[in-house]
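FAQ: What does the model actually see?

It sees only this:
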Amino acid sequence: MSHCRMQSKRVSIKLAPSLYTSAPDARIQAIEPASDEEPDHKPKLTAMTRRFAINFIAFSLSAILVACASESAVEVAPEVALDRIASPEPTVIPVLEALPTVESAPLPTLDAPPPSPSASSQDFGAIISRDYVQPPTATYRPTEIPSAAPVVRAPTQPGSAQTTAVPLGNTQLDGAGMGIQVYFNFDVPGWDRVLRQLASLRVGWVKLQASWKWLQPNAAGQFDQSFRLFQLHVQEADKRGFKVLISIAKAPDWTRHTDRSEDGPPDDLNHFRWFIHSLLEKVGPNIDAIEIWNEPNLKREWTGNRPINGASYMELFRVGYDAVRAYSPSIAVVTAGLAPTGNHAGISVDDRVFLRQMYQAGLGGYSDVKIGVHPYSWGNPPDFLCCDHVAGQGWDDKPQFFFLQTIYDYTNIIAANSDNAPMWVTEFGWATWEDFPSEAPEVWMAYNSAFDQSNYALRAFEIGQSRADIELMFLWNLNYAYEIAVQHRSELAAYSILYPRFDGSDHQRERPLFQALATRP
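And it is asked to produce this:
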């Protein structure tokens, strides 16, 4: 938020007081600065013309003073001080003049994916993207169908696969290498509450998904009022000392003219270039890292006129990387975290195959990128490796079902391509449906108790911080278990470490993981 400064620009900003309350019709109206540009050549004025101009200016100034005297003052709700809406000092933004049209280069030959397996052996990843609804034609099944009754088990696997218990009083974790993704569509008081909750966890980073279609739904250069809310929240998080990672995904419909049945990239990548440029003009000083897209190896994130493969994604990555670097040499650029899944024709590409395709398409040529990883683990503890079968339990017979196996596999792929890029775990976590007043949406969620969720996540943080090739880890998620999400049995809610009291209030309960993070040494 910013104080209005007259810097040889005419600026008028109207802030409706309802933004700073919980009123549902909160609005922000902003009139962009008028242009500073003047003609290169000005005609000479005659003496009469000068006198006329002076008299006209004097009359105009008088009229403006009278009009300003009658304007109403801007109202700000008492709980938000005016300095809460201060913008950072202006940053010089490189001008992107006459950006060249991005042309699609011929795609290199890629690893041929194995044949699509039968429906009885599908190994789909966890559904963890916001607002995702499974299409009615998709049938999600493990290779091994678990029994109807939840299996009560102890971690008894042999050797190195044995889970290590994490005593809460002895968990030595460095908060500077930890972050968490948050739901942020709140008014200012609500966002203040979220930031205070984050502060109690003593993590250094916060992750927000910048849904392009939500921030710029109508046309290029036209940001929706939701963008202003996003801008205020990013600025406030930065002001309170958090480092900010944003994940840019989900192109708006006006950039997509073929198949828009699910989310996907834009048809013309120049729209993506200009969106990043415009975004950074407004919130660049408050952002520390950008993840370019989310899980592009899934059709539900990559629907449109581009094939689902690593080379196609690298075309978009290249445009996004260049746009970020045109603004800043220091903002970290992260490749999209891939969904841990297998090859399923028209639905998904194996994440290991997809990462190899990205390297074939030039990923190894970037010396300063981070490799995004989403090592979900279903009902398997973080120390387990593939494939350790537990009697009566499914989701344990593929490498993608294991946190540590995914880390090992990505490490090997990076090394095989003579790269030493560090990994950023931009999403990970364990789901539990404990204490929710309905049946879990997926059987495997019954494998994890709330204490399993806590113990596994803490151990995963320990594993990550013991490895030189992992720089940062972001837990998924803080607060997606809002009451309606639980009522609709959304998988988003199962990963949340805060959940509602189910009494219609805004009060939340804390999962054991929240408490363990807050009370660790």
